[in-house]
Each structure stands twice: as C-alpha cells, then as structure tokens.
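SAMPLE LOG
Freezer: B-3
Tube label: C17
Construct: single chain, 226 aa
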Amino acid sequence: MLIALAAILLLGAILLPQVWVQHVFARHAHERADIPGTGGELARHLIERFKLDGVSVEQTEQGDHYDPAEKAVRLSSDNYAGRSLTAVAVAAHEVSHALQDAYGERSFRVWQQLASLARVTDRMAGVFFIAAPFLAILARTPLALVALIGAGIALLSVRVIVTLVSLPLEFDASFSKALPILRQGSYVADNDMPAVRSILRAAAFTYLAASLMSLVNLARWVRMLR
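STRUCTURE (predicted):
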C-alpha cells in the first residue's frame, strides 16, 4: 500500500509540473492585437538590439530552445508566428540564453560542456543496456551483468547532472534577463507583467520536470542492481 502511494506521489510530482507548464502557456497563447510583433520578430529585434552577431532565429518543431552550437534561437511555430504573451515571453527567454552565451557566463559554459558530454554518454549508455544481457550470457556470470548495468547507470548520471545544472540557467534567463528586458523595453503593457512573470516561471520549471524524469529513469536501472 505504501509503495503504491509512493509511486502515485512520484508520478504526480513528475506529471504535474508538465501539466502546469502547458496550462500556463496555453492560457496566454491567444492572439493579441495590441502586441506589435510576433515572437520571431521580437527575437530578431532583441538580437539586433544586443548586437548578437551571428545569432539566427528559426522556426522548429523540436520545441523552443537556443542552440549554442549553431548560434540559433529556435521557436515553435506558435511562438514564432504568434502575437501572444506566451510567444513574446518565450522568445525573450530563449534570446536570454543567447545572451548568456555571448557574455561567456561561466555557468553557461559549464552546462555547454556537460551537455556535449551527455550526448556522448547517452549513446554509450544505450549500447551498454542493449549489449549487457548478451555479454553477461557470454561471460556466464551475473557479475558481468551487474558491472555492465553499473557502467550504464554511471553514464546516465551525466544526463541527470546536466539537467540539474540547467535549472539555475533557466531561472537566470527568465528573471535576471528576460523579465527586465520586457519590462524596461515596454514590450508588453504593465498590466500584463504578472502574466509574463507566470509564463517565464513556467519556462524555467519545464526543466524541473525533465530533472525528475531523468532521476526516475536512473532509479529504474539502479533497481536492477538490487
């Protein structure tokens, strides 16, 4: 009974942030005639304003993000072409990541290095978990399986660390950069600032759900060693 309750609470802790984020985005995604430009147009304007040479703005179906390797702010179709509070707030948030990159902020550099490492370790972990049962059979000992799974868990742990490191970067992008930019530049009306703050908070908390999911995936493999 306690185990089932704990599982339900854990599932809620994982799903509720995701549901809440999507609710906040959808709530403020309606088109507004009083917003002078789309999310994509605001992103380009901010890139010009802050002289982020070489940074492009692109439409994507892979979710809103900033790609430091390609120097590209990528926005979902709704936020790229939309004239909504969600569109402009998310655009400002992603441009703020480009600012972190351009300013050479140490935390961003550390995250970038870890993210590159995580892409490699993710692929290696996949190979480990696929090959582990077959190699254990060939070795004819359960210790080989334990060793291989342990190695895979260690590799997956890098992804967990990367996701956790990203959290302070997300809050910095939302509240230390995007919020002052939108407020001081009068890009949105004063009476819309509470909604904008809520959207920026949701943008930052998107990665909290990712952190929890990473931890749950890691826990599944840890159980195999018991």
